[in-house]
Amino acid sequence: MSSTATRAIVTGTTKPRVAARGWRRFEPLLWLGPVLILLFGIVVYPMFEMLRTAFSEISRAGLDRGLAGFENFTRLLTHPDLGHVLWQTLMWLVLVVGLTLVVSWPIALLLHQDFPGRTLVRYAVIVPWAASLVMTSLIFRWMFHYYYGAINSVLVSTGITPRPIDWLGSPVMAWIALIAVGVFVSVPFTSYVLLSGLQSIPAEVYEAAKIDGAGHLKTWFFITRPMLAGSVLVALALNIVGVFNSFPIIWLITQGGPNRATHTTITFMYELAFKNRSIGEAAALSLLNLIVLMLIVVVYLRFQRKNAGGLL
């Protein structure tokens, strides 16, 4: 044993040092503590209450009458409007997400080009996404107004339509209006995700393909498409989650009308909880929505893993 170690044992300085090292193990909790408390308060505890409420009998006055088993789920699954709402949710997802990807692709290609004022155009494109979704929805609600809306005013004054269009009075036109707003607020973020993917592709790869005689079609199919697959997956997954949870657009513009023709599971859940006072059924639907989102995340992670292996 060395003289230093012997001196430490004799003087008793070993235990304090060991104790200091032991306390340092808990030092990260001082930094992670506030985040963990916030995470527990806004994620873990609400999820626990949602799960408990889904299996409880809650009166219209909000009183907890004890466990109800699967009664809330039975009432929800036998609700006469649920099938129609599920179909509308699927239609809302497919159309908004699909059209967003279609529209975002040429915008990303445009923003990737070098032209005068490109920086200003990039700033302008991101504005609809950066603005408050509630504010955007209320603005569009007034723009679609039958008598005073700016859209009908332009259409009638230019002679495109002989009379104003009842955008929010018929199910078909209401869906067209909502999908247009959904695409409008989703395109900026998706365009930037695709733009980041385009900018990550080395210019040398395109130069080598050009030297080898590859045309635009082959360059896109063999270089751009596979190297952009990861960005497309990210944009697709985030758009599905965002559009699925999109509440302000539908509720502030149509409130699920006319005649519940534009309800999705999110707005239908809100109506069950705060209009019909069926809190247990709303919690059951919320749990089902959570399961759907978890499945979407699992599928995304699976495809992302395949993409990392070069299979996508």
What this model shows, in words?
A two-stranded antiparallel ribbon has the order 1-2. The chain is globular, with a radius of gyration of 27 Å. The protein is mainly α. The chain is 74% helix and 2% strand. A hairpin with a 5-residue loop joins β1 and β2. The chain starts with a helix and ends with a helix. The longest helix is centred in the first third of the chain and has 31 residues.
Task: Write a brief structural summary.
Helices cover 74% and strands 2% of the residues.
Write the layout of secondary structure elements.
Elements (H helix, E strand, L loop, with lengths): L2 H9 L2 H11 L2 H28 L1 E3 L5 E4 L3 H7 L4 H31 L5 H13 L2 H11 L6 H8 L13 H29 L3 H9 L4 H12 L1 H16 L3 H6 L11 H10 L4 H30 L4
Antiparallel strand pairs: 1-2
Helix pairs in contact: 3-15, 4-15, 5-9, 5-12, 6-9, 9-12, 12-15, 14-15
Main attributes of the structure:
312 residues, mainly alpha, 15 helices, 2 strands, globular
**How would you state the average pLDDT, rounded?**
85
Specify the number of helices: 15
State the helical fraction.
Answer: over 70%
What is the spatial order of strands in the main beta sheet?
Answer: 1-2
Strand content: under 5%
Q: Indicate the low-confidence ranges by residue numbers.
A: none
Order of helices and strands: HHHEEHHHHHHHHHHHH
What structural class should be given to the helix and strand makeup?
mainly alpha
Shape: globular
* SS elements, strand count: 2
How would you characterize the largest beta sheet?
Answer: 2 strands, antiparallel
Whole-number radius of gyration? Answer: 27 Å
Beginning-to-end CA distance, first to last residue: 61 Å
